[in-house]
Design goal:
By secondary structure, this protein is mainly α. It has a domain of 50 residues. It is 67% helix and 0% strand. It has four helices and no strands. Helix 2 crosses helix 4. It is globular and about 35 Å long.
């Protein structure tokens, strides 16, 4: 069984390790969506845990829709 993609990214960020190009793209898109929703300041101040479950779910939902529309998967 492999470790889920987002857990790998989270561990790398915490350990201050270099992200792969795919991981960097995913993080960039996540921040862009947070900015569009007016949440970027809170994310920068408190981290992702400073958001509610509804807010993070909204970001995840938008990312999932973008993946579907683009025909790509970040979980590979």
């Amino acid at each position: 069984m492999t470790t889920p993609f987002k857990k790998v990214v989270k561990a790398k960020i915490k350990a201050k390790k270099e992200l792969s190009p795919v991981e960097k793209e995913r993080e960039l898109i996540k921040y862009e969506i947070a900015e569009e929703l007016g949440l970027k300041d809170r994310v920068e101040k408190y981290g992702w845990s400073g958001l509610t479950a509804e807010e993070t779910g909204r970001i995840g939902g938008i990312m999932t829709k973008m993946n579907k529309d683009a025909g790509r998967r970040w979980n590979d």
